[in-house]
Design brief:
The structure holds two protein chains of two kinds.
Chain A: E1 2-13, E2 21-32, E3 36-41, H1 47-54, E4 67-70, E5 73-74, H2 78-87, E6 88-91, H3 104-114, H4 119-132, H5 137-140, H6 150-162, E7 168-172, H7 180-196, E8 200-204, H8 208-214, E9 217-222, E10 225-230, H9 232-237, H10 239-244, H11 251-261, H12 273-295, H13 300-320, H14 337-341
Parallel strand pairs in A: 3-8, 3-9, 6-7, 7-8
Antiparallel strand pairs in A: 1-2, 1-4, 4-5, 9-10
Helix pairs in contact in A: 3-4, 3-6, 4-6, 12-13
Chain B: E1 4-18, E2 21-34, E3 38-42, H1 49-56, E4 64-69, E5 72-73, H2 80-86, E6 87-90, H3 103-113, H4 118-131, H5 147-159, E7 165-169, H6 177-192, E8 196-200, H7 204-207, E9 212-217, E10 220-225, H8 227-232, H9 245-256, H10 267-278
Parallel strand pairs in B: 3-8, 3-9, 6-7, 7-8
Antiparallel strand pairs in B: 1-2, 1-4, 4-5, 9-10
Helix pairs in contact in B: 3-4, 3-5, 4-5, 5-6
The chains are: A alpha/beta, B alpha/beta.
């Protein structure tokens, strides 16, 4: 089932003024329920404008031609707008700046209250939301959100969104400004939320390493257009496109390129550090086994070892269709979102 | 006069959080920094980094101990002008640090306030914009700039005061990767020209660019050394931080049988270790 269907969406800020700026150009995007989607793009590429359409904070400028449909509801339809906003949980950048109540429990209850739920249900949801984000209800409920640490505040802000039990969770740079442990915790939390609360997650981020690790699918924007759409491997392997979009490659991918340019044999579709470590480990074992085989060519036990690691390796390359030893992107075809979305 | 440009001697500082309840942010901390050093000050949220930064230019006063900048104490109100001139600070939020709409006016604001001559102000604005690579933006407005550009303007505003020390208080935290690179390039360049740089950050790749890393934990110094010493200390995780991705990768590779010379903090060192065995 598709959670989000966007068609022909364009958006112009300050139309017909000297400050006119086209933020989105003919976006077509369909997101299946259960997807972990990463939206990447340089500053000003239209990421924020796009996600603000998802819960009707920005409405399509031409209702005839363009449409944004979320869980079967049009974002332009006033009658279902409230329901739609409860189903799309938005966690904006630095969400802790939006905390406003004098206790954590009241702040988290704000959303469910607006949903006109029974008091018991509200309490239940507040408890559950705090528990899911890893804050002990008894310890935190009556504290002021303003006395908490940065990481805790962000959890409270996320709990406030989760308490509405949105089916789609949209997060804009959820780990910006956090220390390394805080980053790891929040990213792990987002994964957990996808499992337990919101099956569809959309993250906007500048961190390609996080995106490569977490997302099932990446959409890359440039100047308001979708220029790439696919698995992290597919998108990040297109070096030229990533560069054109003003983005960084994942650290693992750029390290791979550097190693390939120095003559190390590696597949060119590595996007995570874990993968790179695994590939290099396999390469080392292969190399050791080759030099070992030169010395002891007829030893039986050794041949078994080579077979074990070698065959797995070859299969992957044939299946993946990725050439290795080639760092450049020459010959790669440029694709755009539409192909993928048809 | 002492060898050190910044001398922090047994400094403690606490904040009142609510009625009758204080949080000790910095505890009996001593640290010396030489002129021209590039120091990364790091630690998890709440470790006392930013408090220490605000103590350095007299925004906060030590409750115990003292801080000397070129031998001048920050505790003496009459030195405040001198201290603030010597120690320039750039903060986290690029949108909160401009005072004028036109860039050159914004940069001239500091020197105007301390009564610098008009000709000299013009010269300083030129130099400051040049130093951060923003000369062509001189007469534009600040509102249309990217985050990285706004932070470069904030740095230029500080440079126009001719500081001896620049403190970057998580100045890259809100920037995208390009903005972050821009700021680190400017910081390295300024450091080469002789300015002492204290970069407060919890980005470990950024910390690895400094000559020296000081790690705070619960208001005290937990580790102090070169990036290699600090990342080899085995204490990074205990301080709530992580190793730079490259260093972590090299650890994983060591388990696979690769051998590296000491701790790996650069791409180059990583590549060398790998190529040695794989080529």
């Amino acid at each position: 089932m598709s959670a989000i269907e966007i068609s022909n969406l364009s958006f112009v800020y300050s139309p017909k003024t000297p400050n006119e700026k086209q933020a989105l150009k003919n976006i077509n995007l369909s997101v299946e329920e259960g997807t972990f989607l990463g939206i990447v793009g340089a500053t000003g590429s239209g990421k924020s404008t796009l996600i603000q359409h998802l819960n009707g904070l920005i409405k399509p400028q031409d209702k005839k031609r363009m449409s944004v449909v979320v869980n079967g509801m049009s974002a332009a339809d006033r009658k279902t707008l409230k329901k739609l906003r409860f189903e799309v949980g938005m966690v904006f950048q630095y969400p802790e700046y939006q905390l406003f109540e004098d206790t954590v429990a009241k702040d988290v209850a704000f959303g469910p209250k607006n949903m006109k739920l029974e008091k018991d249900e509200i309490d239940r949801r507040v408890r559950r939301a705090l528990e899911v984000v890893g804050l002990d209800y008894d310890k935190f409920a009556i504290r002021s959100p303003f006395d908490l640490s940065g990481g805790e505040k962000r959890r409270v802000a996320i709990a406030g969104v989760i308490a509405m039990q949105p089916k789609i969770l949209v997060l804009d740079e959820p780990v910006a400004g956090l220390d390394p442990i805080g980053r790891k915790e929040i990213l792990a939390l987002v994964k957990k939320l996808q499992k337990e609360v919101s099956p569809t997650v959309i993250i906007v981020s500048h961190n390609m390493d996080d995106m490569a690790e977490l997302a099932d699918r990446i959409v890359a924007l440039k100047d308001g257009e979708i220029i790439a759409d696919g698995t992290p491997k597919r998108v990040f392997c297109n070096r030229r496109l990533i560069k054109e979009a003003g983005l960084d490659l994942p650290t693992a991918t750029s390290l791979t390129d550097m190693l390939i340019s120095r003559g190390v044999k590696l597949p060119n579709d590595i996007v995570t550090m874990a993968e790179l470590a695994r590939e290099l480990g396999a390469a080392l074992r292969r190399k050791l086994s080759v030099s070992a085989s030169e010395e002891y060519e007829d030893r039986e036990d050794f041949k078994e070892y080579d077979g074990g690691c070698g065959s797995e390796y070859d299969d992957r390359y044939e299946a993946g269709g990725c050439e290795y030893g080639e760092a450049s992107d020459e010959g790669e075809e440029r694709w755009d979102g539409e192909d993928e979305n048809v | 006069m002492s060898d050190f440009q910044i001398e922090i001697k047994g400094v403690s500082y606490s904040y009142p959080v609510r009625e009758g309840y204080n949080v000790k942010a910095v505890k009996n901390l001593s640290l010396n920094i030489r002129k021209g050093e590039f120091v990364a000050l790091t630690g998890m949220n709440g470790s006392g980094k930013s408090t220490l930064a605000k103590l350095l230019n007299g925004l906060f006063q030590p409750k115990e101990g003292e801080i000397l900048i070129d031998g001048i104490s920050t505790a003496d109100e009459s030195n405040m002008f001198e201290i603030r001139k010597k120690v320039g600070m750039v903060f986290q939020n690029p949108d909160n640090q401009t005072v004028a709409t036109i860039i050159e006016d914004d940069i001239a604001f500091g020197p105007e306030n301390i009564g610098v001559e008009r000709e000299e102000i013009i010269r300083r604005v030129d130099e400051a914009l040049e130093a951060v690579g923003m000369s062509e933006y001189r007469t534009r407005t600040t509102s249309k700039l990217s985050g990285g550009q706004k932070q470069r303007i904030a740095i230029a505003g500080v440079l126009a005061m001719k500081p001896d020390i620049i403190i970057l208080d998580e100045s890259t935290a809100m920037l995208d990767p390009n903005g972050r690179k821009e700021i680190m390039e400017v910081a390295c360049r300024l450091n080469k020209s002789g300015i002492t740089v204290v970069n407060i950050t919890h980005n470990m790749e950024e910390a690895a660019l400094a000559d020296r890393i000081v790690v705070l934990r619960k208001g005290r110094i937990a580790i102090d050394g070169t990036p290699k010493e600090v990342f080899a200390s085995g204490l990074i995780e205990a301080c709530g931080l992580t190793l730079p991705p490259i260093t972590e990768l090299s650890r994983a590779l060591a388990e696979e049988g690769f051998v590296f010379d000491g701790v790996v903090i650069s791409d180059e060192e990583l590549a060398e270790g790998i190529c040695r065995l794989l080529k």
